[in-house]
Amino acid sequence: MAAQHQVSASPQHDRRSSSLLGLFMLQCRVIGALLFREMHTRYGRENIGFLWVIGEPILFCAGVAIAWTAIRNSHEHNLPTTAIVLTGYVPLTMWRHCLGRAVFAFQSNGSLLFHRQVTPLDIILARTILEIMGALGAGFLVFLGAWFLGYMEPPKNYGMLYLGLGFHCLFSLATALLVAALSEMSELIEKSINIFSYLSLPFSGAFMMVDWLPPRWQSAILLSPSVDNIEMIREGQFGDSAHAHYDIFYDSWITFVLLLIGLSLTLRARRHIVVQ
Length: 276
Prior knowledge:
By secondary structure, this protein is an all-alpha fold. 72% of the residues lie in helices and 1% in strands. It is built from 10 helices and 2 strands, in the order ααββαααααααα. It has a two-stranded antiparallel sheet. β1 and β2 (79-80) form a beta hairpin. α3 (81-102) packs antiparallel against α5 and α6 (158-185) packs antiparallel against α7. The longest helix is centred in the first third of the chain and has 42 residues, at 2-43. The radius of gyration is 21 Å and the shape is globular.
């Protein structure tokens, strides 16, 4: 009887697994379609079109890197200035662009929610993925240019570099989910998000390292997940010479909590979306 029950239950389990896989693939196709729609809506087909996804962050990253290289010493605390700027400004650009595109993201795409397959989560995922791809692509191209000109060297630890970037992508997604949902619930978020992004610059870790701060401030600044992420990225770039400080355990659980809160608010945001 047990064997017969096991055999009869197996096809049902297979059908359930194939159904879940089918739903997952469907949502992937939906997000892919939203990605292309977002690129077409934002950049059109004239001039370089969707290449502005990378071109716009390149202008920001390259401009800041060139300015800092020109006006500052070649090294800061025995680390190359150009590399310090790029390893900090690329993650900062990623986070700020994700934050900016999250404001009223559901409302501006509200008409898409009439399609049963499209959810608010799909909309914010598409926008966030686009910004992350743009920032990473721009950072890679600017790095290649700086490396070719002799201002940067290849990373010392690729594993740590990718780990830091992965954490920062999740952190950018988590904060985008929070802002997207909260901006639908209150206009105050829309009015204050630019001010918040500027005021948070000293706590982003983009233009300094934790080791440069007095010891009494180091524990406090590491409460910012962005700082932990950028410290990991810089250890990946510079190796042990960076004297990086970070807490992977803290970074993991705080990012996970932010993602859970963001997902919870996103699931509740639909009732607040006003379709024009």
